[in-house]
Amino acid sequence: xxxxxxxxxxxxxxxxxxxxxxxxxxxxxxxxxxxxxxxxxxxxxxxxxxxxxxxxxxxxxxxxxxxxxxxxxxxxxxxxx
Length: 81
Description:
Elements: H1 3-25, H2 30-76
Helix pairs in contact: 1-2
């Protein structure tokens, strides 16, 4: 994936949604306050879903490294350095 697109989805999109929610909250009516809070929550949810996905991918990489180390151990009789 392109780095600029990845940064946009990870950080710019959640920030834009959160800022839009805060802007709506500044209108001042009670319904605008509730709606803005919901939009801010949606922006934070987008950020945290991206964060959880990155954590999950990191776990997969660690499992792949350990699997490769175990295969190396089976072939050579010692752990790789």
